[in-house]
């Protein structure tokens, strides 16, 4: 009879526990009217083809294709020593450590503890004489274990969110690397332009000095007046002013390059050669697959993934936590008996924690995580829109500069031919100095434009490599890979 009663009692207890869990779940898992409002932009909404017929991605070390060993050395130094890049790498290491800690917390945990204490027991409590009111030592040596059974995916969501954040940090580090390499290259080619402009200004000063000597000879021969002499003399200070301004810009740009490579006090003796841009394979149109190769887009997408997992983790908090707990060890009053017979103790069993009434805390937390997801999605959308504009701008600029260079070369040839004719006519006494100076100004103007266009071609080429991702390669969440 007693045995049957005990069996019935146990069955009732199990049924009551199951009913308690079901009622708790139905009462607490109230997530109605809480959901994300933002949506990821796809290729169709941006008007982009999935894949370009001429889809070309840069090499991871695209700058080496430019054929300038001096530039290669500067970028290598910058990637090895720049503090901004090291900060990004430290953030990556921190995110990876956080992911490892989250993964470790989801497995079984085991700890050991030893406690020893001398205490006086109360004479008016539950402890009977002769211990009541006496002084005695107590000791405990115990192993304790805990394993949270992830029935509702809370730990899995937390791990996925941590891994998403780590992958976003990895993409951020790659984006910083690409940006640093492109910044060094752009400053290098700016220095190229300034040195070429300086050489042109020095050539102009020499020409104007030569013209001044010619005017002085013609004045001595009675062929020119003081007017032509004063005009020639007034052009020399202007040429020297341009030279001084270019020296200043060269110094400042050199300082910027030295800071980028982590050696701000180093006097860099850099005189980059001026030559036409080397053709690097590049796409002719913007496509969705090209955008997936940008590290900033990948970082934004991984942040969306991490925020999505945070939402899943917030939802899982509405459900019970189920833990398996166990302990085994020794405990005694009197340290001399701690490891003796009868002092052993152990226990094992499940632990259930179910939120019933929390004053709206869980719903508020879910709303906050959902808002974070909306913000991450819109940040991704903004990054995609900006990337489309960036790539389109660089492609358009590249094509426009090619056309401009063709027209500039034709104008340069005409200006130099006109200057040669004006100079010969003046030397033969058939023309005046004003015609020579006007022709010289046209040559100077075209030469400056040629230098600027050549530098712009290099600068735009570098910007296009950056806009196309700079050779970034990484796995994206599946949802992005299909867009």
From TrEMBL:
GO cellular component: a single term: plasma membrane
Keyword field: Lipoprotein, Membrane, Palmitate, Signal, Transmembrane, Transmembrane beta strand
Question: What subcellular compartments does it reside in?
Answer: Cell membrane; Membrane
Record Pfam families: OEP
Task: Enumerate the SUPFAM superfamilies for this protein.
Answer: Outer membrane efflux proteins (OEP)
Q: Which domain of life is it from?
A: Bacteria
Gene3D superfamilies hit by this protein: Outer membrane efflux proteins (OEP)
**Where does the signal sequence lie?**
1-31
> Would you tell me the protein name for this molecule?
RND efflux system, outer membrane lipoprotein, NodT
Q: Which organism is it from?
A: Albidiferax ferrireducens (strain ATCC BAA-621 / DSM 15236 / T118)
């Amino acid at each position: 009879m007693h045995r049957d009663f005990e069996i019935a009692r146990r069955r009732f207890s199990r049924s009551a526990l199951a009913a308690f869990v079901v009622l708790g779940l139905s009462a607490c898992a109230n997530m109605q009217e809480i959901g994300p409002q933002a949506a990821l932009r796809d290729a169709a909404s941006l008007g982009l083809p999935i894949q370009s017929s001429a889809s070309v991605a840069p090499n991871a070390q695209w700058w080496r294709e430019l054929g300038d060993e001096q530039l290669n050395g500067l970028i290598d130094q910058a990637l090895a020593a720049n503090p901004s890049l090291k900060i990004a790498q430290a953030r990556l290491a921190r995110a990876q450590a956080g992911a490892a800690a989250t993964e470790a917390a989801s497995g079984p945990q085991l700890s050991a503890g030893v406690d020893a204490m001398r205490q006086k027991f109360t004479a008016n409590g539950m402890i009977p004489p002769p211990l009541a009111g006496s002084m005695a030592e107590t000791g405990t040596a115990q192993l304790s274990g805990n394993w949270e059974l992830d029935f509702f995916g809370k730990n899995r969501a937390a791990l996925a969110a941590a891994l998403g954040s780590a992958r976003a940090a990895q993409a951020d580090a790659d984006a910083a690397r690409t940006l640093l390499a492109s910044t060094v290259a752009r400053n290098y080619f700016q220095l190229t332009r300034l040195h070429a402009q300086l050489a042109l200004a020095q050539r102009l000063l020499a020409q104007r000095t030569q013209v001044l000597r010619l005017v002085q000879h013609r004045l001595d021969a009675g062929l020119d007046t003081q007017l032509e002499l004063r005009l020639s003399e007034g052009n020399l200070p202007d040429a020297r002013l341009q030279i001084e301004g270019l020296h200043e810009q060269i110094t400042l740009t050199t300082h910027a390059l030295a800071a980028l490579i982590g050696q701000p006090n180093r006097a860099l003796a850099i005189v980059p050669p001026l030559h036409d841009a080397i053709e690097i394979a590049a796409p002719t149109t913007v496509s969705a697959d090209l955008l997936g190769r940008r590290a900033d887009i990948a970082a934004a997408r991984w942040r969306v993934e991490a925020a999505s997992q945070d939402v899943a983790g917030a939802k899982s908090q509405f459900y019970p936590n189920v833990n398996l707990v166990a302990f085994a060890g020794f405990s005694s009053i009197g340290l001399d008996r701690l490891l003796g017979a009868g002092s052993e103790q152990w226990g094992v069993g499940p632990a259930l924690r179910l939120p019933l009434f929390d004053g709206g805390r869980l719903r508020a937390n879910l709303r906050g995580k959902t808002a974070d997801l909306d913000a991450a999605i819109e940040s991704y959308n903004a990054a995609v829109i900006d990337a489309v504009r960036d790539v389109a701008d660089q492609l358009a600029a590249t094509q426009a500069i090619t056309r401009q260079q063709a027209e500039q070369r034709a104008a340069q040839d005409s200006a130099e031919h006109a200057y040669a004719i004006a100079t010969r006519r003046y030397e033969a006494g058939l023309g005046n100095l004003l015609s020579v100076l006007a022709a010289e100004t046209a040559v100077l103007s075209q030469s400056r434009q040629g230098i600027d266009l050549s530098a712009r071609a290099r600068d735009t080429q570098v910007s296009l490599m950056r806009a196309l991702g700079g050779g970034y390669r990484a796995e994206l969440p599946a949802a992005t890979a299909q867009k």
